[in-house]
Structure formats: C-alpha cells, structure tokens
Design brief:
This protein is an alpha/beta fold and 304 residues long. It folds into 2 domains: 11-205, Spore Coat Polysaccharide Biosynthesis Protein SpsA, Chain A (Alpha-Beta Complex); 213-300, no CATH class. It has helices spanning 24-32, 52-62, 79-93, 114-124, 163-169, 180-190, 213-228, 233-243, 251-266, 274-301; strands at residues 11-17, 40-46, 66-71, 100-104, 108-110, 128-139, 142-145, 158-162, 194-205. Strands 1, 2, 3, 4, 5, 6, 7, 8 and 9 form a 9-stranded mixed β-sheet that branches. Strand 6 and strand 7 form a beta hairpin. Helix 7 packs across helix 9 and helix 8 runs antiparallel to helix 9. The longest helix has 28 residues, at 274-301. The chain starts with 10 loop residues before the first strand and ends with a helix. 36% of the residues are buried.
C-alpha cells in the first residue's frame, strides 16, 4: 500500500455503476472539468448490461487517471453489491498516494470547483473527517435543493473522507439495506471526527427520483435500515411523523415506521456493535432534546 499524501490536496475517487449509460457521461465530464482532478478514479461496472462499459472504457483509454474495472454478477439492483464493487475498486486506488478518498455516484453532476472547494474546507478544519455537498433534484426543468438535506447528514452521492478517518472506520461497509454513508458517518463521529454537509456545494442528481411503488418499497426498506442500525424507537416515531409533511406520498412516512416495527417484531440481527447503537441513540436523544428546547424557546418568544 502506498503511503498517504496527507499534506496535499490530492484525492482519489471510486464509482460503482450499474446500467448508467444514460447518465455516466455527464458524471465523467464533471470530473474532467474539475479545477483539481483526482490522482486516480476507478469506475467499477457492477454487472452492467447496457452501454456503460463502452462509455467508461472510451474515457479510460483517453485519460490515464481513470481506471475501469468490470465485475460480473446476477442482474438486478442490490445495496450490497454496490459496496462490494467499491471495495473491489479501492484496491486500485491504493496504488497511488492521496490525502482524501471519496465516492462519486454515477448519475450526478457537480460544478468545476466542487472538489477543490471541498478540500479547502478540510484544510480549514483539521478535525473534519467526512464531508460533501447538498443534493439537488430536477423539478419542472429546474434543479432545487432536496428537502431532506441536512448539514449533519452527508449524502454519499459526492463525498470525500480524510484518509486517516477512512482507514480508522474501515471504509464503507457492506450492508443489506444500504446506508453505508450513514454507517461511515456515525463510525467517524464515534472516533472523534467531525462530519458535515455544506449547502454551498450543490450536487445535481440527474436521475429522477422514483415515485409510486418504488417510493413505497424504499420507505419500508429505510425503516428496516433504521432498525438494523439500532435507531432509538422514540426518535424513529418522531422522525417519521415529521417527514409525513415532506413525502411525495404521505403514506411513505407510515411505511418507514412499519418497516421499523416489522424488523423489531422479528428481532432481526443487527450488523452493528452495541457501541455503535449506544452512540447513535445518544446522538438521536440529544437531537430530540434540542428540538423541544427550540420549540419551547419559540413559544416563549411569541408569548404562547
């Protein structure tokens, strides 16, 4: 393994792509336009059956810092295989020195100074271990900030991790219900690193977020994900109630709670340690307490 280049702005990227022929060229063009390009970028075709491989190969042949890796597997979407692909790709990254390592989804676009600006934020704060921007979705032909964005929740779509932090948390973990970004963030916080999403750094999601059946299935899965991480039950109830107001389909919040209850009733085995669960619940209880303090303060200020 090559030693880390901890004093520079050097970074390495990995991307898992499954049938992204419609979007990945925009992603590649975004990286080529960066004012600071990565030392290496490995793009792993996760069993793609469309033209994804041809597109990536053509760019890899033209640009030495791009590496293409092909993985074969049974067709279909899987949260586990995405991270398995990333883990396969990171082996190629460690052949070069870098100070930061990150994930870049295959269906997004970013501005030309995205990674330069992000690295500058790392330099300003030596305790910052994991960071990214705010995801924007296209609505009626115009990109708007996703309502679920929070500064305390770093989206996996285009994030960087300080190399020391990445190695301390053991990288991204393979999880049945997804949530590798959330797991990485909690793991970083447990080890004393700060994590933050910055609204001034937009991430443009080029794939339209699914609705209807996909949204309902996703909501139920997210509830099971919350349970698998040991989310506090009271926090889960409050979160799902609050999100009823922002769901495209109101029942989404209820299905998330049902997914949580389903896994709880089955007493499913959790893939995280008791230390992880205790830390996560302490964070969630603190957020609930802060929410009620702000509400009480607002009531006092308005004389109610």
């Amino acid at each position: 393994m090559v030693a880390p280049d901890t004093k520079s702005e050097s970074y390495a990227l990995m991307t898992a792509a499954y049938n992204e022929a419609a979007h990945i060229e925009k992603t590649i063009q975004s990286v080529l336009a960066q004012t600071v390009r990565p030392q290496r970028w490995v793009i792993v075709s996760d069993g793609s059956t469309d033209q994804t491989d041809d597109i990536v190969r053509s760019y890899a042949e033209q640009h030495d810092f791009i590496r293409f890796v092909r993985m074969s597997r049974a067709p279909g979407h899987s949260f586990r295989t995405k991270v398995i692909a990333l883990q396969a790709g990171q082996k190629v990254l460690f052949e070069v020195p870098f100070a930061f390592i990150g994930n870049l989804d295959a269906d997004i676009s970013i501005g030309p100074t995205y990674f330069e600006d992000l690295i500058e934020l790392f330099f300003r704060n030596p305790k910052l271990g994991l960071a990214g921007g705010f995801v924007c979705e296209e609505v009626h032909g115009e990109f708007k900030v996703r309502t679920s964005n929070r500064t305390h929740s770093v989206a996996h779509a285009a994030q960087l991790v300080r190399r020391e932090c990445y190695e301390a948390i053991g990288g991204y973990q393979v999880l049945e219900y997804g949530g590798e970004d959330w797991h990485a963030q909690v793991s970083a916080n447990m080890r004393g690193w700060q994590t933050e999403a910055f609204p001034e750094l937009p991430i443009y999601h080029n794939r339209h977020t699914g609705a209807g059946t996909n949204l309902l299935r996703s909501s139920f899965r997210l509830g099971r994900l919350d349970y698998s991480f040991g989310s506090d039950p009271l926090f889960e109830v409050i979160k799902c109630i609050l999100r009823l107001r922002s769901q495209p389909i109101v029942i989404g919040g209820l299905l998330r709670l049902m997914g949580f209850a389903w896994s709880s009733a089955r007493r499913e085995e959790r893939p995280v340690s008791q230390e992880f669960i205790s830390f996560l619940r302490s964070e969630q209880k603190a957020r609930v307490a802060n929410m009620f303090r702000r509400k009480n303060l607002s009531m006092k200020l308005h004389g109610t």
